[in-house]
Structures are given as structure tokens and as C-alpha cells.
Amino acid sequence: MKKNSMMRLLLPTTDHQYTFEILIRATMGVKETKSVQVNGKNSENSYTGLSYFQSVGKNPLVYRTIGQQLSLSAHANPDKEAFVFVEEKKRFTYGQLLREADRLAAGFQCLGLTKGDRVALLMPNVSTWPITMFAAARAGLISISLNPTYKPHEIEECLNRVAAKVVVASESFGSKKYYDQFLEILPELGSCNSRKIQCKKLPFLSTIIIDSEKDYLGTLRLSDVLSMPTFHQINKILSEQEKISPDSGCNIQMTSGFTGSPKMVLHKHLSVLNLSFQMRKFELINTTACVPLSFCHMYALVAIIGALCNNSTVVVPNYICDSGKILNAIWKEKCEIIFGMPKLFMELVSKQREIKLDIKNLIAITGGMQCTQELLIQMKKELGLRKLQDKYEDNIGTVGCLTDHLETKVIDNEGKLVPFGTPGELCIRGYSTMMGYWGDEEQTRKVLGSDGWLKTGDYFILESNGYGKIIGRISDIITKGTEKIFPKEIESLLGTFPSIEEVYIEYQINTGVKKCVLLFAFVKGMILSLLKIYMIIVKEECLLLKLLATYE
Known about the structure:
Elements lengths: L5 E5 L9 E6 L19 H4 L3 E4 L10 H11 L4 E5 L4 E4 H17 L7 E5 L5 H11 L3 E4 L6 H10 L4 E5 L1 E2 L2 E2 H8 L21 E5 L8 E2 H5 L4 H9 L9 E6 L9 E5 H9 L10 E3 L7 H12 L3 E4 L6 H10 L4 E4 L1 H14 L7 E4 L6 H11 L22 E6 L12 E7 L5 E2 L3 H7 L6 E9 L5 E6 L4 E3 L2 E3 L1 H8 L7 E8 L5 E9 L2 E2 L2 H10 L10 E2 L1
Catalytic activity: a medium-chain fatty acid + ATP + CoA = a medium-chain fatty acyl-CoA + AMP + diphosphate; octanoate + ATP + CoA = octanoyl-CoA + AMP + diphosphate
Keywords: Ligase, Membrane, Transmembrane, Transmembrane helix
Pfam family, one: AMP-binding
């Protein structure tokens, strides 16, 4: 029987840095699974039956920096297109990318930046973003991925918390004018005759660089910085690459901040680069990949560097997500791979029904929520999602097997290993874990032990063959008496119904006496009522009858 499937990627998110292989997800309409050979070992735990697994891996880790990898890729394929920015109408090769990155890296040094200094990126999906990120890596600096939708007070907080010395910004993003936002933070900027910033509100910040032809008071134009270094200073960047350690920090990502101020997660070159090399398993070698993801997220960063590691071209369809522009970019640039999330894929399916472009043989790589069975069917029908090789096959209902060179264990509340098949907290140790929360040793110690084990906060079941299943986030568990209600279980169940496209469960504590569970389900563009969902559950005689709209 033929199986049409979709790859799902559990990337190292900003809060819990672990990785499971992209494997085939949710074989459509097929209940049986094939056995999968797991490249790992359990040593003594195979006999004790305790939840510990080590994935050895066939290929060694790559010990180099992002900047060194860019140099290798550019010298091997100087004329290969690295990026296509469709909305900007810009294209540049690997050779051009390296030259521009080194010019900007030398420009940063002319501004007085030294190894370990922080450079913030405040821009949408534009060509300046990867050039700046690679320039920071080549200069041994740490890039800060700021969300381009941030408001002035959020920009101020992030810049201060990471002690950023330089911020590189686009001129605008939609209706946002970034210079106006900087003026709101630093009113004195408008009357500043100097290019150097000295202010109490942002004591660490020395320079604001704006990618614009216009000259804004108190700032530098990006073109000014690019023209600062001499030929000798640019060439010096190459000779300094060996002085930058793969174990040093290269990028800071912001957590969502839903539960307070966002935490600043520091990643090292070794982690980001080797996660990106995993893309070879996803048929990314010598191909063209559409990356409509916001560049400020880890998923996009790994996708971009993954293409770099595998001699592929990244197609960026637009500044901000637009399903029509994405589909047109896939069609015109003949993209073979697309990175995205289930919500984006739903929008693409809906738009493709309208415009009916000739798209076929597409590979989809997704992160975040699990795609529903119905969505996979529609992606096969509308987007030409092609069959993938059996070697990527996943056991139904799991997130796949642990990625190479990592260890995993599942523990109870006391930190002891639980038996295989028993739920507990997932912990990961290996190259992919974060270095820590920038400037927050207390929070870092809560999740990252001195022994290298990182607590992910996921309630997890690990099997002896290395496959695992996420039940939900420990923080999301709803306790009703002695019962534990897992929103993810409810979401997964409802996601199996053909009429339901997307499900969200949210737990809220009201100011009153009662606590409530809010359930949102989208049915072909409509919100399904809680009563109807309850009736579906009753009809299926599911154990999730414990789902209630309100309870004491």
C-alpha cells in the first residue's frame, strides 16, 4: 500500500533545546507500521529497563564555526546561488555572500567591536539579515535575533539585557519606521551630531546602523559601514577565523515571553552548524528550498544554515508571510522543499485551491504542532506532496528517534530514571543543548545541570528502541482531583477527525473561584462549538470525557 507522508521537524526551540529526527508523520489512513532500525544503544539500561537512550550516529560531528563553513561553501561553489529574495528582486551567490559578509565583518571591527560583542538584528526577511548574521559570525560576534514586530519598549529591554553594542535595522517594516521607534526610546537622537550614541537608557549601545539611502541623525547608513574597511582589513577577517572557537556563542534567540519577559537563549557555533548538517537526511543536498519562516526564529536559522551546509539555494518569497506569494515563489523558482508550520500549510492548501499553480513533487518539512491526517491528505492533493523514502519512516504516534550524538533520559519528580514506557520529564544531553540563558544564571541552573543534562519541561514516554512520545508540557498539565488532563491528548484526538483542521487547548485561571479550559477548533474555516466537540467525544467512547468547559 502506498503511503503519502510529510516530514516533521522538532527543532531545538528556544526553551528546550533538543532534537528528534525528521521522520515520516501520520501515514494517511494506514494503521500498521514498519519496523525501523534504530542507530543507537542503551548499554546497561537495555537490561535494567530504565528510560535512557544514546544515539551513537554513523557520521562524526563537524567541529568548525559558521564562518568557516561559509568560507568552505563559497570556495567550493562560488557561483552557486545562495539566496533568492523574490520580493526584493535580489539574488546573490555563495561567493558574493562571503565577500559582503567579510566587508561588513571588517566594518564592525572598524566600529571597535571585538570577539564576543553583541550585534542586534532588527529587520524582516530581507537580504541584509543573512549578510549581517554571517558577518557577525565571521567577526566572532554574537548576533541577536530580534522580532521585527517588537515595540519600542521591547526593543529597549532586549538591547539592555544582552548589552548590545550595535543594532542593524531596516528602514521600515510595513507601517513601522524603525528610526521613529529609536526616537521614542532615545529622543536625543534627533538632535545628535555624533554617530556614536551615549545615553543612560541604553548605556551599552554605541551605534545604530540603518539599511537606508537616507542619512538619519545619530545613526550610520549600512553602506557607510561597508565602505569603512580597507582591502587589508577585509582580508584580515579570513586569517582570524581559526581564532574563533566552535564552542563559543554565535546567536541569541528570544523565547516567546508568554509567561513574562522573554529569556535570552545563547547558542554556540557547534550546535547550530551540526543541527543544520542534519538536513542532509531531508534531501536538502543540491536543491532549492523555500523558507517563508520569520528569520528571527531558530527554525529559520537552522534552515538557512542547513542550505549553506548542503550546497542548496534558499528562496525567500516575501518580507512577511503571504500564502499567494509563497506559492508563486515555489512555482517560479521550482522549489523542491518548503519549510513551514501546520498553520502555514493550511493557508497554502486553501490558496492553491484558488490559484491552481502547477506545483508537484514537493517535500514539506514542518515543526511545531503535529499535522492532522486531513491536512496531510489535502497537502498531497493540492500541493503535490510526494512520497518519501521508507528509511525516514516513523512509528505512528511518536516524534521519532533521537538524533545522532545525543543522549536522552526520562526522570520522575525526584530526578530518578523511570522504566521504559513510563511518563516523566524528558532530559537531553549533547551538542545541541543551549549554552544557557544570557545573564540569568539562576534560570539556567534550573534547567541545565552542571552534568550537561537539560530538562526540557516535556512530559514524555521513551521506548527501549529509542522512539518517544510527547504527552504534553508539564506546565500545561491540568489537574482535576486525582486526574491529570493533557491538552495535547485532546488536540491529537480531535485532530483525527476529517472535518477538523486545527485544534488548540488553553488552560486559564480566572480571578474568580473557577478555572476553565478553553478549546478552539477550526472546521473548514469555522469554529466548532464545545458542545459539538463533546458530542464527538461521547460518540467515539473516548476516555477524554473528562474534558469539561468549566470545573471547580
